[in-house]
Amino acid sequence: MGLAVRVIPCLDVRSGRVVKGVNFEGIRDAGDPVEAAERYDETGADELCLLDITASHENRAAIIETVTAVAEQIWIPLTVGGGVGDEAAFERLLRAGADKVSINSAALRDRQLIARLAKRYGSQCVVVAIDAKAAAGGWRAYSQGGRHDTGIDAIDWARQAAELGAGEILLTSMDADGTCNGYDLGMIAAVAQIIDVPLIASGGAGQLDHFAPAIEAGADAVLAASVFHDRVLEIGQVKHSLAAAGLATTLPAAEAA
Amino acid sequence: MPDRKLVVADCGLGNIHSLLAALRRLAAPDERVELTANPRHIERADAVFLPGDGSFGACVAEIDGRDLRSVLVDSAASKPFFAICVGMQVLFEASQEAPQARGLGVLDGQASRFPAAAGIKVPLMGWLDVQTVADRHPVFASVSDGDRFYFLHSYFLPATSRQVALTGQHSSPFAAAVAAGRLVATQFHPEKSHAAGLALIEKFLELARTD
């Protein structure tokens, strides 16, 4: 027993619709977020992640409606992120129905934002999302939805974010994202060694044997979008593969055996 | 007969949608669900929910800023009352999270931060198994050892607190739920714990109706 490994499907949402892309590019429409969220809730997701990829010049109010509509149909925790620029935007999402809110570019611009949010809302709902790409000697953090190379070392940034009060790190490998070739295990291990808050591995999941290694590398949760959305894998299958690797899952005891 | 009122105390922090949605789903036809920061509405409620999001200090500050302290203390002592997460913690006297903030003091004890321990992450975030105690409160009658609920917190009340109904084990043993008569509090989020969590809310409402 003990804390279960979390399996987290992620929905990328733009102007109220689920969309899909590869390596942060090539976006196409993939359906209604509320329907997708309900399906994930029913099929055993341990948590749901909703990422708003609406560009800054588009209608940002849409995400508030989507969050509320989704929150009212699911009975699992909901993390929402994407374009959260300040305290007011953070609070709007919490009030709309998010349990945790992830911040990314805004925290890179203003690191103390993490501390202020943790003080008011508690670390447990402050997630710092890091989009990172391999570079000479390690990994670098990117901002603006992966468009801008900050030049900041991603591992060091994860350490700082946790120290400032982030309750969780959502670590996405931009290299692996959308490739279905597996998580970036080296980067997961490097971050896991340096932080003592929960870590979500993201980017690259394509088949069942990709999940347990991410946990073994040090992640506490595995996030995936396309394999679940395209029904390449069901959440239950992923939990069974984790249980088979000897990890605690939320499968009922009889099923996990 | 007038409608019964299920009132969620609005402390202005965090997510109350899931709780409201759960209550609307589980309410009987003659029960009305209301989110309010108005002390008089809380006073007239048939059952009160204290969702308690945010940090301990911010939650207490909001309670006092909205003048809800006395009505919450009275309600916790006199009617069906369900506190969740930080809402459970503020029922106690104090927390290490905000040493200067005074809890409601309905229950004895104070919250401490989970100690650091190798391989154990703080916040406790996720689905943890709970253990039942011998003398179980009726709201938790259907819970079995090993059932999992969703936890999201860094501070905890000791497993040795009086009126503990469920315990959990993280870097320290802790109170996963406390209950005394009509007062029920869970450190986990029942409204985020899928069917197992909704069943507890349903049972609480059922008992509240016979109050």
The whole-number mean of residue pLDDT values of chain A reads 92
What is the tally of beta strands of chain B? Answer: 12
Q: Order of strands in the sheet with the most strands of chain B?
A: 2-1-3-4-12-11-10-7-8
In the predicted model, the low-confidence regions of chain A spanning at least 5 consecutive residues are none
CATH class of chain A: Alpha Beta
**Could you tell me how far the N terminus lies from the C terminus of chain B, measured between alpha carbons in angstroms?**
16 Å
- Describe the sheet with the most strands of chain B: 9 strands, mixed
- Count helical runs of chain B: 6
Give the fraction of residues assigned to helices of chain B.
25-40%
How many domains of chain B?
1
Shape of chain B: globular
Placed side by side, the strands forming the largest sheet of chain A appear as 1-4-5-6-7-10-11-12
SSE series of chain A:
EEEHEHEHEHHEEEHEHEHEHHH
- How does the overall form of chain A come out from the CA principal axes? globular
Give the C-alpha Rg of chain A.
17 Å
- The CATH superfamily of chain B is identified as Class I glutamine amidotransferase (GATase) domain
Tally of DSSP β-strands of chain A: 12
Largest sheet of chain A: 8 strands, parallel, barrel
Distance between the termini of chain A: 12 Å
Secondary structural class of chain A = alpha/beta
Please give a structural write-up.
- The complex is a heterodimer of chains A (257) and B (211).
- Chain A contains eleven helices and twelve strands.
- With 257 residues, chain A is an alpha/beta fold.
- The two termini of chain A are 12 Å apart.
- Chain B is built from six helices and twelve strands.
- Chain B has 211 residues and is α/β, with parallel strands linked by helices.
- Chain B has one domain: Class I glutamine amidotransferase (GATase) domain (Rossmann fold), CATH 3.40.50.
Keywords for this entry:
heterodimer, A: 257 residues, alpha/beta, TIM Barrel, 8-stranded parallel barrel, 11 helices, 34% helix, globular, B: 211 residues, Rossmann fold, 9-stranded mixed β-sheet, 3-stranded mixed β-sheet, 12 strands
